[in-house]
Write a structure and sequence with these properties.
heterotrimer, A alpha/beta, B mainly alpha, C mainly alpha, A: alpha/beta, Rossmann fold, 6-stranded mixed sheet, 4-stranded antiparallel sheet, globular, C: mainly alpha, MetI-like fold, 2 domains, two-stranded antiparallel ribbon, 2% strand, elongated
Chain lengths: 285, 276, 308
């Protein structure tokens, strides 16, 4: 990868943990005049080059949490530090890239123009821009399609373009909000391996929101299990599967054990939940 | 997904040519047949007797020849009014649309005005515009055209500037983009298809504004007045010839806008497929 | 599609409190918008005159105000005060006439209303019938739709004098012009509407061995109603416009179009009269629009109603 220039995402040397959340909470005012507590008391520290999945039922606030990290939503309580700075500073310094569930490509730009977008906004000079775009498209293996338009590509290909775009300014942190949710299972599995490859090659820290337990286990170094109403972290499970992971990993004993562990945790029968219940039963008369 | 046109092997050539011809025929033959049939029926039913309210097509074409100077001068004048009005209305409408997209408060004022104006027969103000700007002055007809054009342009351009995917705005926010950058890189490209749709509709409105403005008064060498004069003089063929020129002018403007659209936003045509 | 509820602070869809009140409220909202329109125009009008017009002299109210600038178009002759226009409605229509201007204009408006209404209804029916034909016969569609589309680019209204000459002076030609202006937008929109149902609903009907007619009545036609109404709102105005323009050459002595031409000729002696006629014509257009909107709101009861 080419050497980073300063001011283009602090990808080279992140100062402090990539993400550090302390006591973060978010309450929304609903149109009916009530209040919804989307998130409550979130504490999380993410180390460099980790791959963290956020998983939980609908309404647990995982997407909200991701957007709080990205300074797209303001938290009601708590502090958010990204690369050792407040979230707003990190956004203004362009320290992270974001991939949404929908590719959100601009239909009026070709594939390469779409990937170029953040570099244009950040004022990168033309030569570096061209090189970056080329490298990124090679990375996601879509170099042959650079002159195509989004509507000419399949959903999976569009999402790969979105990933290339998110990485082109080499952020230290990548935020991904169910990026493969709209794709079929086979494409999804293939793209999971792609993401891992890109992760290894670029050394980016990734925060990944998903609905899929197998996906969370396959991709992550740690899985953060959340519960709903109000949104809380119920458990953090370390995934000790060896790297690099591949199709064989999906068939290993340990993989199935971990998937079951995550599933149990989601059902409220995980280790943390059982311990909490034991405390409750024993404590209060 | 574009169909791949592979190379034809000699053995394919025969049926493919036929297939190609059939496609063309299927597409263009029915309307052509209709046109030819109508023209023939029209010509035959009107043949012979002198002045008729709907002269034969041949008589109309003949009138184009005999009154060439008057008709061409009038067509030029009317087209000038219509295009001038189209330009004024488009510029004003676009400027207002940019202003309202920037300041949401102005949108609250504009929206009732636009909806109300769309329900009102604006054309009724043509005589007033003639009074204001001079009945013999082409500018009064331009203003009528501009007034009709203003509202569709404003409404559509505003819609295009404002109705952007929220996720796209979030994306730009994640790049810490300035408002101007969001405007230039997201809102304006998003707005262009809406703009051209409104512009296509506006070409017709501009011609209507110009010609109807002329009905209420104008110099003698504009298409609207030519139509009225020739009708009262009984020369219907000349009147129809004048209308034909007006129609040609309007269609030519429409085609020009379509070509401009294809040049400015080529990606849009491809996106919509072969929707005519 | 993420089913994660972001619990957004602003909700995009206005939730209706009660099913029965939603149509009434939608209609009231449109009427309020019209009212705001009139108010807005009046404010801009008088504001314009206050900046560029003739002096405002009302000794009884102690007002003697000189606007800072001057533009011909803002003068009292060219742009009478709003209250003068409204006040003129109470004055006699002609110097020695018994009828007031207001009475006269209401009569003219009613006449124009009926012409426009007949033209509108016939035009809408023709539009729906043509659209039905085009949807069921690809050949008819390919043969005629290019002309339907091309005709939208032609300033049809320019044909008004010729139509009148051809069909004779009188209500028939005026209605014809209104029909002509109405059926094009209706046809195009209705074709789109009839084709709008999800292909899967059509497959479902076919699995019931439903006839084409049955599919048309039960699926296509109901699906086309929103499209139809958006075109009808445009057509309503077009119908009124066509009627007004057609009345002068059409020699209809009783309609608003005729009144506009007459009062334009007499402009110097009473500018308020022409303006009052324009005001009444605008109100007529709005009333027409509101009627169509009311029918739309009733027809689309239960479905999501479009804003304004």
């Amino acid at each position: 990868m080419s050497v980073l220039r300063s001011g283009m995402g602090a990808g080279a040397v992140p100062s402090g943990a990539p993400v550090s959340l302390s006591g973060v909470g978010k309450t929304f005012q609903t149109s009916g005049g009530g209040r919804t507590v989307a998130l409550e008391n979130i504490d999380l520290d993410v180390q460099p080059t980790e791959f963290i999945s956020l998983i939980g039922p609908s309404g647990c606030g995982k997407s909200t949490l991701l957007r709080i990290v990205g300074d797209l939503i303001e938290p009601s309580t708590g502090t958010v530090q990204v690369n050792g700075k407040p979230a707003r500073r990190a956004r203004l310094d362009r320290d992270y890239g974001m991939v949404f569930q929908a590719p959100v490509l601009f239909e009026w730009r070709s594939v390469e123009a779409n990937v170029r977008l953040p570099l244009e906004v950040m004022g990168v000079d033309k030569g570096t821009r061209e090189q970056r775009v080329h490298d990124m498209l090679e990375l996601v293996e879509l170099g042959a399609f650079k002159k195509h338009y989004p509507h000419q590509l399949s959903g999976g290909m569009q999402q790969r373009v979105a990933i290339a775009r998110a990485l082109c300014f080499q952020p230290a942190l990548l935020l991904m909000d169910e990026p493969f949710g709209a794709l079929d299972e086979m494409t999804r599995e293939r793209l999971n391996i792609e993401v891992l490859r890109i992760w290894q090659q670029t050394g980016t820290t990734i925060l990944f929101v998903t609905h899929s337990i197998p996906e969370a286990v396959f991709l992550s170094t740690r899985v953060v299990v959340m519960s709903a109403r109000p949104g809380r972290i119920s458990e953090v499970i370390s995934i000790d599967l060896p790297q690099p992971r591949n199709d064989q990993t999906r068939e290993s004993e340990r993989y199935f054990e971990l998937v079951t562990q995550v599933r149990e945790s989601l059902r409220g029968r995980g280790a943390a939940a059982s311990a909490a219940r034991a405390r409750a039963e024993g404590g209060i008369g | 997904m574009t169909a791949s046109a592979g190379t034809l092997s000699p053995s394919d050539r025969g049926p493919s040519v036929v297939r190609g011809l059939l496609t063309v025929a299927w597409r263009y033959l029915p309307p052509t047949v209709v046109l030819v049939a109508v023209l023939i029926a029209w010509e035959l039913s009107a043949a012979g007797t002198g002045r008729r309210v709907i002269p034969a097509p041949s008589a109309i074409l003949a009138a184009l020849g005999t009154e060439r100077d008057l008709l061409l001068a009038s067509a030029q004048a009317t087209i000038y009014e219509a295009i001038g009005g189209l330009a004024i209305g488009t510029v004003a409408g676009t400027a207002v649309a940019f202003a309202t997209s920037r300041w949401a408060g102005t949108r609250a004022i504009l929206l009732p005005l636009a909806v109300g104006a769309s329900a009102v027969p604006l054309i009724a103000i043509a005589p007033i515009l003639n009074n204001w700007f001079g009945v013999l002055d082409p500018f009064s007809k331009m203003m009528m055209a501009a007034l009709l054009v203003f509202f569709p342009i404003t409404v559509n351009v505003t819609r295009g500037l404002v109705q952007v995917q929220p996720a796209a705005l979030e994306l730009m926010r994640s790049y810490a983009s300035s408002e101007v950058e969001v405007l230039l890189k997201v809102r304006v490209p998003n707005m262009l298809p809406f703009f051209f749709t409104a512009l296509k509709v506006s070409t017709t409105l501009a011609f209507i504004g110009a010609i109807v403005g002329e009905f209420y008064g104008g110099t003698s060498d504009v298409l609207g007045r030519v139509v009225l004069t020739e009708i009262s003089g009984g020369s219907f063929d000349v009147a129809w010839a004048a209308i034909l020129l007006g129609a040609v002018g309007a269609i030519a403007s429409y085609v020009a806008v379509t070509l401009a659209e294809r040049a400015v936003i080529p990606w849009y045509a491809a996106l919509r497929g072969d929707e005519r | 599609m993420t089913d994660e509820q972001q619990a957004p602070p602003e909700s995009a869809v206005a939730t209706s409190r009660g099913r029965s009140s939603a149509p009434a409220r939608a209609l009231l909202r449109t009427a309020a918008v019209m009212g705001l329109f009139l108010l807005g125009v009046a404010v801009i009008w008088e504001g314009f005159k206050a900046l560029f017009g003739d002096p405002w002299r009302y000794p009884q109210l102690g007002i003697d105000f000189r606007p800072p600038f001057h533009l011909l178009q803002a003068a009292d002759l060219q742009l009478p005060h709003v209250w003068d226009i409204v006040g003129a409605l109470a004055n006699p229509v002609q110097r020695s006439a018994a009828q007031s201007l207001g009475q006269f204009l209401v009569g003219a408006a009613i006449f124009t209303w009926w012409e426009a209404l007949i033209g509108f209804v016939i035009g809408a029916l023709v539009g729906v019938v043509l659209a039905t034909l085009f949807v069921h016969s690809r050949l008819a569609e390919r043969a005629f739709v290019p002309y339907v589309i091309a005709s939208q680019t032609i300033p049809i209204v320019a044909l008004a004098p010729l139509i009148v000459v051809g069909l004779g002076r009188g209500i028939v030609s005026i209605v014809f012009i209104a029909v002509y202006l109405t059926f094009f937008p209706v046809t195009i929109a209705e074709v789109r509407g009839l084709r709008s149902p999800d292909p899967r609903s059509l497959e479902l009907m076919r699995s019931y061995a439903a006839s084409r007619w049955s599919i048309f009545w039960k699926v296509r036609l109901p699906a086309s109603v929103p499209y139809l109404f958006s075109a009808l709102k445009i057509a309503a105005t077009a119908s009124v416009v066509g009627t007004i323009i057609g009345e002068d050459p059409g020699g209809a002595s009783e309609g608003l179009g005729r009144a506009i031409v007459n009062f334009n000729q007499q402009y110097i002696t009473g500018p308020e009269k022409l303006w009052a006629t324009i005001l009444v014509a605008s109100l007529l257009g709005m009333a027409f629009y509101l009627v169509v909107r009311m029918i739309e709101v009733i027809a689309l009861r239960g479905r999501r109603v479009a804003q304004a």
